[in-house]
Amino acid sequence: MDVTGWLLRRAAPCAFVVTAIGGTGARLAVERAVRERGWRQALAPAEADLLVVCGPADSELDEALDRVWGQMPGPRARADASSPERVVEVLDRARADLLDAAAQRRDADERDRAARERAEAAGEEHMPGGLPMADRGEDRDGLALDRLHLALGPALTDWPAGLSLRVVLQGDVVQEARVHLVGARDGPSFWDAPRDTSRNASPETDRSPGHPRTTAAAALDAAQRLLFVAGWPAAALAGRRLRDALLEPGTGPGPDAELRRWLRGVRRSHLLRWATDGLGTVGDHAPGELRGDATDRWSRWLEWIEAAVEPDRSASEPVPTAPDTARAALDLVPELVVGRELAAARLIVASLDPDTEAVGAHTPERGT
Amino acid sequence: MSGAAPLWTALLVPVLLLAFGYGAAAGTAALRARAAGTAPEAGLTAPARESARLLVQRRRTIPGADTLLWRLGGALVPVAAVLAALVVPLGPTAVSDLSVGVVWFNAMEVLIWAALWMLGWGADSAWGLVGGYRFLVQGLSYELPHMFALTTAALGAGSLRVSDVVAAQDQVWFAVLMPVAFAVYLLSALAMAFWGPFGTPVGRDLAGGAAAELSGVDLLVLRAGRYMFLAVVAAMAVPLFLGGGAGPLLPGWAWTLAKTAGVVALLVWLGHRLPAVRMDRFTEVAWVVLVPLTLVQALVVAVFVLTR
Questions:
Q1: Taking CA atoms, what residue in B is nearest to A225?
Q2: A144, A134 in Cβ contact below 8 A?
Q3: Which of A121, A302, B93, B202 is most exposed, with minimal Cβ within 10 Å?
Q4: Does residue A129 have a pLDDT over 70?
Q5: Which residues form a coiled coil (chain B) (predicted)?
């Protein structure tokens, strides 16, 4: 009896999703498919068996993807979702690859042989595992602590597409931070791009840019990312579901009642406010959408979402204007995260949520 | 009311813990499935399907890892859960009714500190290291209030023997007599199982934190161990605060199981409803608010015991 095959067929795949700049549409389709099939999304490559790449190929991103691929223990399969339309097809094929036990065994043997050869070639090693040791430096309390170099992104869950934040950590405190964009390209942001409006768009079915429902879906997308980072998967998953429902063309009444309930639940969470209050405070020099602390920023998203379900109440704030805000957000990241713990730094980035597709080929220079 | 069971009952302990742990995992998955808009029934089989996946997945070797500590750390979690459960009575009998049962429980549950630190440190990964740091801060925050809560229950009974604590609740449950201690115990239950709002040591923002580099059966052991731990802390709340096996009609063991299931369900529901607690902020609350509160609770109970 083939136990491996039997177990493989029962297992629900666990996908590690990496989004390239320009891959937001594909990511939305992948997240939706994964959610509806009851698959899981991996937090790290080590637990994943499916690598899903959303968006166009890019040579620098490929280097990161190769490392991710090497960290996946196997059985493993890769799905390149270059466009939203192909998502179902590539996921099905990747699932079939996972179930092909013979091919998976060949892959495993191949890797074992390569690892043995590398180990023999390395010969005598002076460092543990042949790796360089961390150097030391004074931290904020004057203690000599190891300085760890860590790249946050581009292959990180609930993280802006293509963003790579190179940080130096001591303990879990960020000492230095530099922003780099992987695969930056000119082109409209997914949320600003014109949609297919060939079927005569009525107010209910219109999902073109600037429409309250599109703005609300974009805000919901940002909010679900923040909620995942804030450690509230239940609210984040519900946010994803509502986002997908808003983007569905012409679903009649839509998810308005549920959206109101979700808004109430998130707004009322004292614990969430407590986690984000006072984080990443931005002064009046910044674009309006970014001002205040993290709590102010996600509260603003909730208002935009509410504007979609309460048409009478026009949003008090302006709707997001892409390129300038995105650039300002990116430039703000390094100075705001330095001196904070990793948990706070991730919440700050999630609350600024720079739309890396909107900045074009702009490359931020500044760093601290 | 007391008594040590025959030795073979020790084999029953991991089975019961696994059953309750599976229930907690399945309940969590079902609530998640409902939030995601899919059929909640699928959640009931989700932990089994995930286990099947992890059983097939290969283990990883990491260059530069302290493999012994790394593997030991994960394996220690279910072992600590089973050891802690030895003093938890099912109805009137526990596997071992030690004269210092409360202290034994506390000592076994502190093993988690070592387990998570070894797990985070051993993997030679920045994510793991930060996850390990986080749990140490978490431990420093919850452990003192938690120990005062345990002390208060022992104080109310005038004994560290778990069966004496149950016997002392003849008239009134300790959950009623010392509500603050009970609430703090439930809070620290979530924290020591690094689960739900206290799950940041293996959190999503750290790409899995202390568990970031685990795969396959190692990850399965850690996850199962964590749910077993959640189950054992819930089970211990029953003799400490909820009158043990006391109840009408049903036999003692049935009441113990029913109350344990109730506490597990409460913890699962809390984990579903609450976002993560940021540890750097919680530490202040733990030391400035919870420690004095539990001390005052202990004082009130002490006065009550003296004047009774």
A1: B205
A2: no
A3: A121
A4: no
A5: none
Pick from B31, B44, B57 the residue to mutate for testing the A interface (most A CBs within 10 Å).
B57
Residue A130 has pLDDT above 90, yes or no: no
**Is B68 touching A (CB cutoff 8 A)?**
no
Q: For A329-338, B57-66, B210-219, which range has the lowest pLDDT when averaged over its residues?
A: B57-66
Q: Quick check: A320 pLDDT over 60?
A: no
Inter-chain residue contact B213 with A75, CB threshold 8 Å: no
The predicted structure's pLDDT at residue A125 = 54
Tokens for B70, please give them.
């790394």
Structure confidence at residue B43 (pLDDT)? 85
- Asked if B285 reaches chain A (Cβ–Cβ under 8 Å), the answer is no
B70 vs A148: CA distance, rounded Å: 20
Amino acid sitting at position A26: A
Higher pLDDT, A200 or B30: B30
Two structure tokens written together for A145: 């602590």
Do residue B212 and residue A228 have CB atoms under 8 angstroms apart? no
B177's enclosing H/E stretch is helix B174-177
User: Does the structure's ipTM exceed the value 0.85?
Assistant: yes
Which of B72, B60, B14 is CA-nearest to residue B227? B14
Q: Is the dihedral of CA A126, A131, A134, A135 positive or negative?
A: positive
Closest CA to B55 of B279, B217, B167: B217
Specify the DSSP class assigned to residue A318.
P
A43 contacts B208? CB cut-off 8 A: yes
Q: What is the mean pLDDT of residues A180-199?
A: 73
Under a CB-based contact definition with an 8 Å cutoff, are residues B270 and B249 in contact? no
Q: Which pair of tokens denotes residue B11?
A: 């084999």
CB contact under 8 A, B275 and A231: yes
Query: Nearest residue of B to residue A126 by CA position?
Result: B64
Q: Is B119 on the interface with A (CB under 8 A)?
A: no
Closest in B65, B213, B275 to A275, CB measured:
B275
- Order the strands of the A144-152 sheet from edge to edge: A135-138, A144-152, A163-170, A173-181
Kindly state the greatest CA–CA separation across chain B: 63
CB pair distance less than 8 Å for A12 and B50: yes
Fold category of A3-104 in CATH: Rossmann fold (3.40.50)
pLDDT tens, residue by residue, B152-189: 999 999 999 999 999 998 888 999 889 999 999 999 99
Cβ contact (<8 Å) for B52 and A47?
no
Q: At what angle do helices B216-241 and B42-56 cross, to 10 degrees?
A: 130
Domain residue extents for chain A: 3-104, 182-352
Residue B32: list chain A partners with CB under 8 A: 233-234, 237
Q: Name the nearest CA neighbour of A31 among A88, A102, A96.
A: A88
CA distances from A85 to A90, A195, B161, B248, B278 (A): 10, 14, 65, 61, 39
